[in-house]
DNA sequence: TTGTACGCGTTATCAT
DNA sequence: ATGATAACGCGTACAA
């Protein structure tokens, strides 16, 4: 079933059917009704492909996700769902491209073959080749996470620097003077992954500013690594009484590792995290945390990109989110 | 840049360029090299839209995901990533459609506007309107999870019935005679969600067969619900010494609820789960579990669908996976 | 190897 | 003011 067949059955020309559908021109009530009736009874819908070819836009957005082998976190995965829903609310579809490092064919396909009108890039690095590519080609996009080089582009980001400062401040206010930071894996820090990099930086600054004794450690994204990390922290600084972690994926391991070495939370050690509420609340004690607002970030990203598509010369969106820390059961004043 | 421009620059016809690209016809080495050179230096890639229109296939697969408000589980989300990667490995892209219940516009769009060549349906119900729609329209698809009505279609499923029988058998072999099943939410059971339904059924059968005392309880997908569920279980059957759960999302809550009521795992109560390894291992004690093989299921689904597209009359794929239970620290013989 | 019809909507232009 | 005609977007594949 195509537009020509509808036109034939309704006894009008193809363009008339098109105008009935788009409303871009007045069509007499009589003909409009006749065409509409034929469309109804035949269940006709215009082919997205043909329309895309004619209009030069696909009404599809690309979402560049990190390869699975990086074991996506719950937050990242939620973000994918949130983006899909936000896009659906605007009658846009989301095309997935698992890319990064060696896996770039899907990304190339999306851009080169013009499968999408614009792109959302997840897990942006401070120096990100995908961003450079997109800028070079003049392809509309927004990133989740800022790049560091001041490249001009729209972004939605979580204020890791601010959150870490605030978190350290909270612990400081509770009297803690020996504080550890559990960061994301060293590999990500080396590759200048924004959150890891900015968290490390903000932590160092806060330590100096508040005249604390601070230890920052990278930790692989799993529970076993957390155990090793806890050992390393207390080996380096036995007096630590508070831990701030931005590593959601090892949070459960962190809590159990503390328990296993006999440190009670929060009596001996306070724990503060940046992690999804689901994750923080399923632990015992429930961990105080600032929640990564995946849902909101997804919506912001989609809307920023759609605005860009509507107004290519409009202002770039810069959305910096800073969710509040929610106090649960893992914080206490410095012991002793 | 389009194929006509390439043809002009290379001094050949458009069809020759097309044949150079597709290799569907012999082209003289000289012309081939000339064309290839022009393509190289211009960075030309054929438009996916135009090609889709010409060939009648989009090289895109649709993935129907449940709405976010159902709070996707880690497994489900991993599955999305796995599908995207498997598709990318075959140079296909994945189009996301968050659908189900009221949210069906994206689904309708995918089918009606022919945005995709085939569809993968997640979270299939025993009687699933999406499956009926797909069959009616003769649209190629595979489901994750079987429907119950014997409708003809390809599927990939986890053998919940078999796993529950096996799990109960394991607990029985350890001497347990009072066993509880923690199922998915009542709402899902009512809607005849396959895993919930088949698990309940298999549990009942195993209980009869092995002459056990069994209690089956539905549990909402969160940790608080698990606490209520544990209470309900012991209220109904105080002698329970083993719990089998297929509810991954409340697993952490289940373990802490047991601890909080003073039941030691595994000394007092054994726990066996069907859940992702990540999830089971991050708990203390580490929970013995059969892992939901999201990765494999994703690959199977993509490959089954691609086979179907290649051979529409070929056999329907029926893949029933039954991952092994991995013993960790949550199982012990019946106490006393 | 090339010319050209075709797939399917959209929209500018012409005719009424 | 409406309806019809035709060109266009871009690649594919058959006939010549």
From TrEMBL, chains A, B:
It comes from Sphaerisporangium corydalis. This is LacI family DNA-binding transcriptional regulator. Signal peptide: none annotated. InterPro entries: Cro/C1-type_HTH, HTH_LacI, LacI/GalR-like_sensor, Lambda_DNA-bd_dom_sf, Peripla_BP_I. Coiled coil: none annotated. CDD domains: HTH_LacI. Residues 5-30 form the HTH cro/C1-type domain. Keywords: DNA-binding, Transcription, Transcription regulation. Residues 1-55 form the HTH lacI-type domain. Pfam families: LacI, Peripla_BP_3.
């Amino acid at each position: 079933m195509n537009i020509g067949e509808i036109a034939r059955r309704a006894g009008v020309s193809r363009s008339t059917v098109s105008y009935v559908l788009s409303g871009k021109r007045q069509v007499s009530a009589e003909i409009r009704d006749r065409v509409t009736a034929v469309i109804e009874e035949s269940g006709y819908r215009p082919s997205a492909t043909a329309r895309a070819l004619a209009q030069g836009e696909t009404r599809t957005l690309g979402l560049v996700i990190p390869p699975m082998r990086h074991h996506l976190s719950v937050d990242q995965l939620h973000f994918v769902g949130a983006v899909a829903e936000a896009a659906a609310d605007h009658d846009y579809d989301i095309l997935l491209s698992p890319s990064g490092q060696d896996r770039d064919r899907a990304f190339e396909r999306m851009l080169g073959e013009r499968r999408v009108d614009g792109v959302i890039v997840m897990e942006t690095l401070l120096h990100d080749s995908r961003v450079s590519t997109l800028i070079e080609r003049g392809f509309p996009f927004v990133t989740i996470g800022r790049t560091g080089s001041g490249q001009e582009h729209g972004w939605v980001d979580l204020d890791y620097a601010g959150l870490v400062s605030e978190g350290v401040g909270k612990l400081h206010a509770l009297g803690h003077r020996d504080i550890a930071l559990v960061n994301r894996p060293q590999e990500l820090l080396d590759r200048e992954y924004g959150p890891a990099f900015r968290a490390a930086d903000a932590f160092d600054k806060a330590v100096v500013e508040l005249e604390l004794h601070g230890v920052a450690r990278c930790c692989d994204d799993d529970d076993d690594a957390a155990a090793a990390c806890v050992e390393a922290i207390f080996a380096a600084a036995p007096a630590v009484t508070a831990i701030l972690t931005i590593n959601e994926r090892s949070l459960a391991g962190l809590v159990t590792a503390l328990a296993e070495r006999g440190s009670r939370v929060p009596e001996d050690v306070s724990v503060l995290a940046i992690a999804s509420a689901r994750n923080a609340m399923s632990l015992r004690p429930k961990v105080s945390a600032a929640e990564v607002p995946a849902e909101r970030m997804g919506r912001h990203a989609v809307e920023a990109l759609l605005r860009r598509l509507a107004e290519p010369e409009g202002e770039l969106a810069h959305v910096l989110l800073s969710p509040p820390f929610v106090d649960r059961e893992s914080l206490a004043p410095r012991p002793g």
